[in-house]
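Format notes (please read before filing issues)

Several people have asked whether sequences and structure tokens are stored in separate files. They are not. Every record keeps both together, in the order shown below: the sequence lines, then the token lines. Line labels are part of the format and must not be stripped during preprocessing.
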Amino acid sequence: WRRKKASPARIYDQPLWLGKEDIAGKTLFVYWEQGLGDTIQFCRYVYLLKERGAKIILQVQQPLVALLKQLADAAEVVGPNGKIGKFDYHCPLMSLPLAFGTDLSNIPMRKQYLQSDPDLRDRWAKRLGPKKKPRIGLAWSGNPAHWKDRHRSLKLEQLVPLLSDRAEFIALHKDVREVDRDVLNENGRIAYFGNELDFDNTAAVIDLLDIVISVDTSLAHLAGAMGKPVWVLLSFSSDWRWMLSREDSPWYPNARLFRQPKRGDWESVFKCVEIELENLRCAPQEGASELRPTDRMSGRNGGRSSWEKHANTNRADQQKTPPKAKPVQSTNHAPGQQALSIEQALNLALQHLSAGRLSQAEGIY
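Then the structure lines:
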């Protein structure tokens, strides 16, 4: 059903590959089916396919073609209108975790599986000049057509209080929304390069940053795939891939998650980010940003970060009078079957996620 409804439609005479058949010496056509961030996150699987001896044709969205050409040693990368040629099997990119039986114990997690173009990086290094302060990239909104955009995107004015003279800020957006244009023009602390920032050039700029602060959008995935420190600002009901109650991500080892402790509470998130920014030091031009030991995530040094302390305070306030779980109004249960509570639905989604059934987990969310 999903492949029939996709644009373009994904109905082929060749069989669907979900990991059972031996593909050594075969040609496998792998194609995008959802957002830009999804493609960046799951393109890592082409290396596993290569290890199985298959020839891979990877079709991606046009904005990502130039960036993902670097996967040429593992796959032939083509755009939406590129020539596909003959193939033996096909598989949607988002189904590869299922095909490989992915769970939390075996996520293919390279610290860096995408890189910037060296020539573009050198060009932007000259453009930006010597770094005298921590250099921070900002991405505050995602695709406005996304069905959860109003929950996951911000207005630029909400980030203005975080800006200080102690750091250099660069907007990583190619396009900004009309509501943000005046704020961007009036605030001289944010460098904005507009149409110059296609994904290839954005990757080059990210390589020159100490850290990226982003909402849940493709730029967060790009920074994560490049192994750069990225702080992801998440709504209370965040996307399935970020899981629940974690400050880290099993998909990106350099990612740090700042979650709303309750629905709509961005202020708590901003407060925690502000505290962490105060401890950010300027790193060497080619190195990653340094964080003082007390600011690292609790799972890495045994101590609690300021984010965890602040978030736990909010959680404690909510737990004084725990609300009764409300039934989820969903069409995912059979007729006559009782609707799941929110807690039951989340537990079921996590079971699907752990078993690699990503589409089912996303459907429950």
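For reference, the curators noted about this record: The longest strand covers residues 27-31. The CA atoms of residues 144 and 150 lie 8 Å apart.
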